[in-house]
Fold each of these.
Amino acid sequence: MSRRTNSRIAQSKRGRLTRRDLLARAAGVVGAAATAPVAGQQSIDTTRRPGRGPNGLDQRSPFVTPRRDPSSTSSRTPLQDLRGTITPADLHFERHHGGVPEIDPGRYELLVHGMVDRPTVFNLADLQRFPATSRTCFLECSGNLRRGGPETPPQMVCGLTSQTEWTGVMLSALFAEVGADPDATWFLAEGQDAAVMTRSIPTEKAFDDAMVVYAQNGDALMPGNGYPARLLLPGWEGNASVKWLRRIELADQPFMTREETSKYTDPLGDGTVRQFSFVMDARSIITDPAYPRVIEPGWHEIRGLAWSGRGRITNVEVSVDGGDSWEQAALQGPVLPKAHVRFRHPWNWTGGPAEIMSRATDETGYVQPTWETLRAARGPNTRYHQNPITSWTITGGGRVLFGSERLQA
Amino acid sequence: MLAASVPAATAQPPSTGTQGTFGLGRAATTAEIEALDIDVRPDGWGLPPGRGNAADGARVWERTCRVCHGPEGKGGTTAPVVGRAPNGRPPTVGNFWPYATTLYDYINRAMPRNAPGTLTSDQVYGVVAWILVRNEIIPDDAEMNAETLPQVVMPARARFVPDDRRGGREVR
């Protein structure tokens, strides 16, 4: 036995091996065939040799392998594997329309022109010299709902949302720098990806909380999230926060780009097509317990995320009986506007089928709707801004499955 | 504690430069503005010189577009561009695009997908004309150019309504 072993045997026989010591050594330190595992054995094993030294860039433990779920055009954050509210930058969701460009920051330039006194080109160093602001908020693709079957994890239901502490310059500072014309009411934001992505944005948003950001959780942006600089429109549909920003043009009318006409619009039941539906409405989802977990009867903390593009979440309610009754969940402070907030609620599962769900309310009084309410309001043809209440059913055996029955066409 | 709010106004520089600016960035040249300013607006602003009709466009379509969009603009590997189903299902240029100028803007900047921005302005006008003819929106021999394209009225234009929701509790 090691001298470090804190046992009465070692103390009483200090300095002299006992018969018991010899038997213990013969049985081996790890995985003794004839005896049960020694409690705390791994706690001892790793003390036997020095570990790796400091390095320049840490990696996750080999036992930790979170993954985005990539498709040809997007990748989804593994919401069920995350426990806080900041999404690690390498797990932030992606949505691209022409792939990810590789941009040399030394040659990066942002042109601001149109209805301005001084058409100006800013390089990255210029942008970083302006007074900086940091803001923690979510991004969400407005197409962030997949109505999968029972074996659908949160990642696949709505993994096109993530949260970051963004740092950059207020767009209003750039507009002041170039002498923006007060009569300008719209601006075109354009990216330098192969889609040369463009969206028209009201200048109201520029003078509210729009930013040009160059840092993601304190570090440079990831290439998939817009390196070296992108537009950030807190609370608005993700497509409008144009990545790889190369140009801003101020004007007095919208440009009617492809993304704001044939895409990202809402064909309603009355035949009209709603355009410029920018704001992401209040939403929540339980991330744990969720598919593919299997749980045992007893106490579990129901956990999830809630958010609203209009401002702060004021409360999240949780039901464990399929919506018959609701209780207030606890919100993890600080509750920030236009940001994911963590909600938690204790639940004693006594066994037997159950259905758990969450419902968010934001500071404007808006309550997250059911799928039926949403469909009744919009008709059957819309694809964007679908934020229905979702649920997880628990079978008698403890399998947690997505409540797909709640989202029937 | 993370900042709970964001300042709405910019910080003032310690000493006032021209009109209270920081003196950052450099003046853009006309040449670089012209090189980047490729957008086309519904009133036609931004359309370059050039012209094309459906016959011109058919040659480009055959060589460059049909591989994804299909020989007739539907049935390809990507969403159809041709179709006049009145209920907008599936949505196409013919039943869902409100502005013809967007066709020029989008094809010019983003198509073909494997080599975006490589078509000449004549080629883009031709492809635009071909698509509009196939969707029965303009006559077979119509020429599309900077004057005629903004005048095309798309069947879907009247359907588009800017978001008029007032917020609060309503779900619309």
Amino acid sequence: MTQMESLPAWAALLTSLLVLLGAGLTLIGTIGLLRLPSFYERMHAPTLGATWGTAGILLGSIVFFSVLQSRLVIHEALIAVFVTVTTPVTLMLLARAALHRDRAEGRRE
Amino acid sequence: MSAAILSWSLLIAQVMLAIAMAGAGLRMIRGPRAQDRILAFDALYVDAMLLLLLFGIGTASTLYFEAALVISLLGFVSTVALAKFLMRGEVIE
């Protein structure tokens, strides 16, 4: 908490804005996961958390640590690249598995 | 003043992510079929990773970053393994 006091005001405000944006979008995505009717619609909702939710919180973290340590801290970009690469792969595998199961059981939609 | 705003917004964001994790857990318990549960599991992993990053900002230590990286790696591997299992009935063939 003492280190947080030494942060300039613009960095603190920018960090809180980005963090709130990311967390809010993740929450909206999970509400979509809970409320949408069918599986193929539900599949779209959590990607909100995987794209802008992650990006907002990671950008907030980059701003916070860069200003706090007064040098450029971008190791958070590792997580950003990794999540961006892996989310489409997993969701495509999952969608193909679900499609395969639905077709094998002969149900429509 | 700005430090107070930052710590309050971190708290609000953590509460939001906790609610999101609870929602994903509810979908994982309730989900009508197996693919719903796997999707909720993936969302739960992403939410846990974001929550750890927020802990890292709140304590101003970079230790939590490694934990978040490991969680995202494990989430990818486990979701791919579960989807593969759902497709074929076995993971490594």
